[in-house]
Each structure stands twice: as C-alpha cells, then as structure tokens.
C-alpha cells in the first residue's frame, strides 16, 4: 500500500506530466502559426501543406491532455490550486487546438493565393502576425512562470491587434474598390487577417485561464484586458 508521502509525490509527477504535455502542444501550435504566415508572405506552398498535415498531432494532443486531466480529477480528487490547474489545462488545450485550426485556415488560403499571380498588398501582414505570435509566446511564458501579471499584459495587447484588424480590413476593402479584378485574392487576405485576430483572442483566453489558475479569479467578460481588473 502506498504511503501518503508517496501518493503526494506521484500526484505531483502526474501534474508535471500534464504541464509538460501542454507545453509541447503549445510549441506545436506556435510553430503551426509561424509556418502558416511564412507560407503566405513567402509564397511557400510546401510549408502550407505541412501545417495542414501536422494539424492531426494537435488534435491528438488535445484528446490526450483531456483524458489525462479527467483521470486526475476522478482518481486524485484535487483541491484548490491543483483543481483549478487541471480544469484550466483542459481549456488551454482546447484554445491551443483552435490556434492550430486558425493556422490551418491561413495555410489553406496560402495554397489558393500561391496558385495565382502575386499582388501588392496595402498592408504588412507580418506586423499583425508578429503581434499575434508574440501574444501566443508570452501566454506560454506566463503559463510556465505562473505569472498573472504577465498574463494580463497579453490581455491588454489584444486591443492593439483589434485596432490593426480594423485598419487592415478597411485598407483591403479600399483596394477591392480600386482594383475589382483583385477581389477574390484580396478576400483571402481578409480571412487571413481575421484568422490572426482570432489567434490573438485565443492567446488572451489562455492568459485569462492563467489568472484563474494562480489567483482563482474569473476575468473573462469583465474588461480585464483594458486594465480594469
């Protein structure tokens, strides 16, 4: 029969395993976004196909993390911070899987765009991509450090992406009016901009989960992203 001390050590190891799986999944999601953006900006269709093919790994990891979390809840009956961590881990895995889905959407648009003649964009897609990717990276760092202040910084940066989203969409619409023959291709870029904005939103959701883990506060829909927490 296992001693209480041994059971505690085993539980800690299982929590660490869950955390490590989340970190591996986060790395896959970040790489998927990075590759998808490059597939557009550098017209690299091989990278786009790689993102689409590799998405199955993110889907499998989400299911594995969910299964791991449910077993911990059922068998260990955790309390307080550990309980919040396990519940949030399932939500974070879902957000990471959705980030991967957005990367796939971008990659699919890249394949369409790369099969046509390039056009001169009225926007710099890399600026928005760097912002969104930076938010994803910082959300992962905040998770590793269990740092709610760092997490809140990501929530606040979401406003920058929203402003850029509005600006870019308007510029693309203006370009559509000026060059009607580009409408179909420019529409693909509208979708890509929306995908990047959604990635930033998902990174924000992860950071809200981090605040929940560390402080037990639910800040979704409370305006915390504008510093009002």
TrEMBL record:
One of its GO terms (cellular component) is cytoplasm. Keywords: Cytoplasm, Phosphate transport, Transport. Gene3D superfamilies: Phosphate transport system protein phou homolog 2, domain 2. GO terms for biological process: intracellular phosphate ion homeostasis; negative regulation of phosphate metabolic process; phosphate ion transport. It is found in: Cytoplasm. Residues 22-109, 126-210 form the PhoU domain. The keyword Transport applies. Belongs to the PhoU family. This is Phosphate-specific transport system accessory protein PhoU. It comes from Desulfobacca acetoxidans.
């Amino acid at each position: 029969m296992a001693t209480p001390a041994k059971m505690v050590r085993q539980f800690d190891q299982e929590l660490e395993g869950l955390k490590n799986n989340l970190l591996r999944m986060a790395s896959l999601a970040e790489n998927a976004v990075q590759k998808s953006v490059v597939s557009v900006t550098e017209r690299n269709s091989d990278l786009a196909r790689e993102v689409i093919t590799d998405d199955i790994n993110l889907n499998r990891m989400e299911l594995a993390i969910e299964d791991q979390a449910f077993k911990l809840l059922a068998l260990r009956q955790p309390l307080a911070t550990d309980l919040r961590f396990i519940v949030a881990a399932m939500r974070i895995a879902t957000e990471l899987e959705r980030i991967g889905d957005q990367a796939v959407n971008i990659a699919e648009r890249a394949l369409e765009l790369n099969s046509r003649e390039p056009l001169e964009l009225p926007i710099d897609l890399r600026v928005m991509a760097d912002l969104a990717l930076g938010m994803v990276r910082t959300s992962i760092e905040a998770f590793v450090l269990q740092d709610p202040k760092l997490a809140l910084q990501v929530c606040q940066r979401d406003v920058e992406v929203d402003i850029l989203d509005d600006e870019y969409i308007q510029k693309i619409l203006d370009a559509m009016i000026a060059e009607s023959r580009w409408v179909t291709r420019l529409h693909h870029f509208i979708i890509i901009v929306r995908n990047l904005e959604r990635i930033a939103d998902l990174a924000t959701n992860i950071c809200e989960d981090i605040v929940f883990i560390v402080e037990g506060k639910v800040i979704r829909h409370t305006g915390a992203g504008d510093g009002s927490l």
